[in-house]
Amino acid sequence: MSINCVGPKPFLSPVGASDLGGVGGGGRRSFSFKDIPSFKALSPVQKQTLVAGREVFLRVDLNLKPKKGALDPKRLEAALPIIKELSELGAIVYIASHRSDPKDPKGKVAMETSMGPVAKMLGERLPGKKVVFAGDHIQFNEGEELTALNFQAHIESLRQKAELKAGDVVVLENLRFYPDSTKKLSEDFAKTIAQCFGIYIDDAFGTAHRAHASMIVARYMPEGKSFVGPLMEKEMEMLRPILVNPRRPFVGSMSGSKVTTEEGKEGKIDILKGVLPLVDKMILAGGLGNAVLCAARGIDHLGAYKPTAQDLQAAKELLAEYQSKLVLPADLVFVKGIASFDQLLKAEQLAPADLVTVNLDTLQPGETIPENWFPADIGPATLDRFGGVIKNAQTIFANGPAGVYENELTAVGTKGLVTSIDQAAAQGAYALGGGGDFLAAAKSIKTQALRLSTGGGALLSVVAKNGEVPAFTAFF
Q1: What is the mean pLDDT of residues 435-450?
Q2: Nearest 5°: phi and psi at 323?
Q3: Taking every pair of C-alpha atoms in the chain, what is the biggest distance, in angstroms?
């Protein structure tokens, strides 16, 4: 592929990574998470000398989710400080993100997931700044398939049409409109980005585990021209005590409904196998815990929960290798008259009378739980069991809820689990947690000492792979 995407002529001569603290270009070295201190954001001196007058490709996570009829601005608010700062320093800031939706036909233009609404929201938060949306200057057609060459042409067109100057902010269109950008280790597209911009900053921890073009640009930038943003740097620093010489005992807590790999998406057991060698004990709940409970008890269902044959086999293999590390529920809270997770979510209202707690430790051989009772939460005996393990921990890593958090009556276990972890952190343990419902529970109970990651799947992948994920390794 021939690429000729040259922006404004740099006014500085190239500076080596040893001088700037950035990384990239030649001389790659093998990855080790112990190198995390070298992943640094721009220093004050670099900001003054390196950024002004440059075109900066800023990869952020602006995949805003619908909330009460509007887009939740939380991720935009988190990215706002670095956008403002780069603009005020005189950079031309190109903001790159993806937006997705369950109906999004990945690899084609789908205007329903355009970045247009995000650009509008950003403009409202940057009064006095020129905020340009790529879609106002470039025609994107529904169903169109775009390439790296299209991306190159779009950047050149923006330069000509938008009359950009120092301090302007450009919101690029949804990266997933360019199918090449999401192909595994899409080097050609990454090279295109690298050749189009003077500076690359990665501040999208939520997609750090994705081998997409926009996450591996550092691999192709000149030395000293690639940096992590402040959010990425913060996440890396929080991960260090988990992955580099963690204090013992080290306790993990994981849950999830998707147990084994399906349609190319990694299942929780696959990730769990990467985390288990790191920890001394692993607490399991949710669908993941239920699958292992079935395997441990030699049964094929727990009420309405029935693991697939693949899930059950994977759980048996997990038990065979790691049984001494696993901490399973002692009791579960079932919702009567509910046969599936989807049915539970659609239930208009639950009452306490709809719930029943079953002590699994006292369940007699041959005694079964009705198949229209859905396991939706952990019970008080389980909270006591989990709490006892957590109380003795010096390092804690947690991801995911203990039950169906969407309903207040079945969110009790998750809130109790998060409370136990926060209390252990207040007593001196190092605790890091993440995942959407886990974060919601932490916010609900106003945790004080527990550190919270913005990543869900990314956080799990980073820990399971000891930091060896595309966004990190691209810098080496």
Answers
A1: 94
A2: -55, -40
A3: 78
